[in-house]
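Take one record.
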Amino acid sequence: MDVESTLIQTFKNKIFDYNNIESNELDIEVIAHALANTCRFGGHCERFFSVCEHSLNVYTSVLVFENRSDLALEALMHDASEAFIVDLPRPLKRKFPTYKLLETEIETYIARKFNLKYDGKWDDVIKRADERMLITERNSLFKPPYIEGLWPDVEPYNYSLFSVRNPATLFVETFNMLMGERHGKV
């Protein structure tokens, strides 16, 4: 085994190379599977809540509360890079500036491959929805009292988080529906 390798094997037996991002095959099922198996908040929530479930909830909030169907696909895919770099809690991300560089590189590649609206950052509507969903999730997945100064000062959505038995399947179905709508195949 090469301990200096920059390759991982995905659940569909494909290779993902961190040193050659552009060479990687992207498969929506691989992305959905990995996100469904990645817990939010570094696993420190009351129950397992996946990045896949988070992405589905952000997608729903952008569509329903922000009334931005034009950004629905981007909202769904906003954390897709975490299928390959995991979901680090924000304070830890700040300790590793190279993580953010790699995250942006992977996001850029994913956006280009799936023709997403992304210019090195997600639209402000998606960022705002992500922040509000963070607080909505905190209110559902953590017991009060909440540590002062730790959380963004934004209003949560008046929304109950939904969970599904197989979020990866719903993620793939939603992705395919949105791609079909975007390309006029509905």
